[in-house]
Write a structure and sequence with these properties.
The protein is an all-alpha fold and about 160 residues long. It is about 80% helix and about 0% strand. The chain has one domain. α1 (about 1-20) runs antiparallel to α7 (about 150-160) and α4 (about 80-100) runs antiparallel to α6. The radius of gyration is 20 Å and the shape is elongated.
């Protein structure tokens, strides 16, 4: 009975540490599929710029695998996640700048150049950029053990020990 209780406590701690990265996992998944769809549309348009979302998708896949590994081997530092969100923030910023220029059709040849389309793309880019920025802040807090989840984990460890 005591061994099962210890196993249950260990599993609870493992899940708590893993759940510190929950928002990062969901953000990674959202951006991963956003880049996948963008790449598919660019490939359908036979555009050489498809390399950009393919590279972001690949980096996002490495980020996802890095996060899966966290369940067995907890670590506060996620280099692929940090790089992925930094690149997403940079690319979103560059794309926002090019949105109202002639470069729009290089990155989005499958879209019509109309105000509703531009507004939608602008919203997606700004939303994705804000998401990437917030995830970078969260990663930094986790790395320094300053996140709320870590404080809850410490309180839980004090209770069970």
């Amino acid at each position: 009975m005591n061994a099962q209780l210890d196993k249950s406590k260990k599993l609870s701690l493992t899940n708590l540490y893993f759940n510190r990265f929950l928002a990062i996992r969901y953000s990674t998944a959202f951006l991963l599929f956003l880049n996948l769809y963008w790449a598919i549309f660019l490939l359908g348009s036979k555009s050489y710029t498809a390399i950009l979302p393919i590279m972001l998708f690949t980096l996002g896949a490495f980020t996802a695998f890095e996060q899966v590994k966290l369940y067995r081997h907890h670590d506060n530092f996620l280099p692929f996640a940090k790089l992925f969100f930094q690149m997403m923030l940079l690319i979103c910023g560059v794309l926002v700048i090019t949105l109202y220029t002639s470069l729009f059709h290089i990155f989005f040849p499958f879209l019509k150049d109309s105000q509703p389309v531009l507004n939608t793309i602008m919203g997606l880019l700004i939303g994705s950029g804000v998401m990437a920025f917030l995830m970078l802040k969260r990663l930094a807090k986790i790395q320094r053990n300053e996140d709320k989840h870590f404080k809850r984990i410490q309180a839980y460890e004090e209770i069970i020990n």
